[in-house]
Design goal:
alpha/beta, three-stranded antiparallel β-sheet, 12 strands
């Protein structure tokens, strides 16, 4: 990371995850532990305010943004992911277009990683998010993303690992507003 840019790790708050069960919320807790200096996000408004606050306070633009949450993508083009409790989905341009408020906070060659299961199966969603964020590269994954507590002791003493599914049959997809490719 350059001293003129920054990386942000914004994770869906475990309290905002639905349904209220440990497996669902545990994933969010694990992501918060895995990414150092990550921040739990309650909803889209909190997300936008956090980004504006970090850019203003640090006086740096974003080079890498990781959005950790729950989501899904389907072969018919439909897909969704959460920013906190706010649902961002292919068919809801109002929520996606709200992301335009933060487009100016990214460097031209920024990368946004959606760590939400199977969002890479909805290239339409990834392209729309890229367009809303000013044409940055948006990465999604075609398989399930999982976390595992590792080490001799489980939470809160052990470490956490994250698997994006690309070691198995999953793929990482990166999209710009008009095109996508498999990495």
């Amino acid at each position: 990371m350059s001293d003129k840019t920054m990386d942000l790790y914004l994770i869906q708050s475990p309290e905002a995850a639905f349904p209220d069960e440990d497996n669902v919320r545990g994933y969010n807790r694990d992501l918060l532990r895995y990414f150092k200096n990550s921040v739990p996000i309650i909803d889209l408004g909190d997300f936008i305010c956090r980004i504006a606050r970090e850019v203003g306070a640090r006086r740096r633009l974003i080079k890498k943004l990781v959005i950790g949450s729950h989501g899904a993508g389907f072969g018919d083009g439909y897909g969704y992911f959460h920013i906190g409790k706010t649902l961002i989905r292919t068919g809801d341009d109002k929520e996606i277009n709200t992301l335009k408020l933060i487009a100016r906070f990214f460097v031209k060659d920024a990368d946004v990683y959606l760590l939400a299961c199977q969002t890479g199966q909805s290239t339409k969603l990834l392209r729309k998010v890229s367009a809303a964020l000013g044409g940055v590269r948006v990465h999604g994954y075609t398989d399930y993303i999982t976390t595992t507590n590792t080490g001799p002791f489980q939470w809160p003493f052990g470490g956490v690992s994250v698997d994006d599914g690309t070691d198995d049959e999953g793929k990482e997809i990166v999209c710009l507003p008009g095109s996508c490719r498999v990495l």
